[in-house]
Specification:
Structural class: alpha+beta
Order of helices and strands: HHHHHEEHEEHEEHEEEHEHH
CATH topology of the largest domain: BirA Bifunctional Protein, domain 2
Helix content: 40-55%
Strand order of the largest sheet: 1-5-6-10-9-8-7
CATH architecture of the largest domain: 2-Layer Sandwich
CATH superfamily of the largest domain: Bira Bifunctional Protein, Domain 2
Oligomer: single chain
Strand content: 15-25%
Number of domains: 2
Largest sheet: 7 strands, mixed
Length: 327
């Protein structure tokens, strides 16, 4: 045991620590919990007599202290050196923090919400992952309905059908199930369709949907609301309504505005189909309502004269800097 202790003492003394890797090797070699030299020595004390155990136990503790002291010396020395390296010169100009800005889609979203809140609409949100009933069936789009072919859907699983919502109309269904008319509601969020990514389309876009249900709501109420919204957003703009088709509204219309020497479609709308009201237990003999939906990306293209829809999602700071003035 004496010879072994002397040999260990010499190893501790001669071990050169130059880096933190050397330090960790040194610590594990002598103090490692399983194979550390001093750890093994402490275990071997059980095999010798009590008298010798006290003597050698004291010696091993002294070796342990030498190891710990050597570790502390290295750490202390290097901490001082690191402090010197980290010492800052207060006369050097600091790095400026780049101020961010709101995304153009966020700006348009806020403007839309502000416009409709002024005429009594409430803003609500809903889940982006939906079931078939809320996304299709309750909106008068049964399984065999040809309109399902109009939307190429991302299904997450089948039986039951769970999918990424294709429109925010599912929020309309969820709200009407839990509330009694009258109500005016606006919802904005991401929707997903399996479309080819191009300068004018993407597989994900943001849709704003509004609906109003009360007694004696008419198509003229819908036109007046749409007119108020477009004038509030674009100023004096030419507006036209064209007959169209949606399975959840009847009659239905597309809304165009005149810009850049041509008509551009910006939204769809119509009177809510009585079947949709019945699906959420609202008496269609007493209540009627209208709904409208529009893509925020398309509005931002017009308002900010953006040429390519893909730039919204590039996180290009040069593009986003242009909108600082509207923060």
């Amino acid at each position: 045991m004496t010879q072994k202790v002397d040999k260990i003492k010499e190893e501790i003394k001669c071990f050169h620590i130059k880096t933190y890797n050397d330090l960790e090797t040194f610590r594990i070699k002598f103090l490692g919990k399983k194979k550390g030299i001093l750890t093994i020595l402490f275990k071997e004390l059980k095999k010798i007599s009590i008298y010798k155990r006290k003597i050698y136990g004291k010696i091993i503790n002294e070796l342990k202290k030498e190891v710990q002291d050597k570790i502390k010396v290295f750490q202390s020395k290097n901490d001082i050196q690191n402090d010197k390296k980290l010492k800052l010169d207060p006369t050097i100009p600091g790095r400026s923090i780049e101020i961010g800005s709101r995304h153009p889609l966020s700006l348009i979203k806020k403007r839309i919400i502000d416009i409709f809140i002024k005429i009594g609409f409430s803003y609500v949100d809903g889940p982006e992952i939906e079931d078939d009933w809320h996304n299709f069936t309750a909106l008068n789009i049964p399984i065999s309905h040809p309109s399902r072919e109009m939307q190429d859907t991302f299904f997450l699983c089948k039986n039951p059908d769970i999918l990424l919502r294709t429109h925010t109309s599912s929020v309309q269904i969820r709200y009407m199930k839990k509330h009694c008319p009258p109500f005016r509601v606006l919802s904005i969020g991401k929707v997903y369709r399996n479309e080819t990514i191009s300068s004018r389309s993407n597989f994900m876009f943001h849709q704003a949907e509004g609906f109003y249900i009360d007694k004696k709501v008419s198509f003229s109420d819908l036109k007046q609301t749409i007119h108020y919204f477009i004038i509030s957003l674009f100023g004096n703009a030419k507006i036209r309504f064209r007959p169209s088709y949606f399975p959840f509204t009847e009659p239905s219309a597309e809304v165009d505005i005149y810009c850049n020497n041509g008509w551009l479609e910006i939204m769809g709308c119509g009177m809510i189909d009585p079947k949709v009201l019945e699906n959420v237990n609202i008496d269609s003999e007493i209540y009627s309502g209208f709904a409208f939906g529009l893509g925020i990306e398309r509005l931002a293209l017009i308002i900010y004269q953006i040429k390519d829809i893909r730039i919204y999602f590039d996180n290009d700071i040069r593009f986003l800097k242009q909108f600082k003035s509207e923060f």
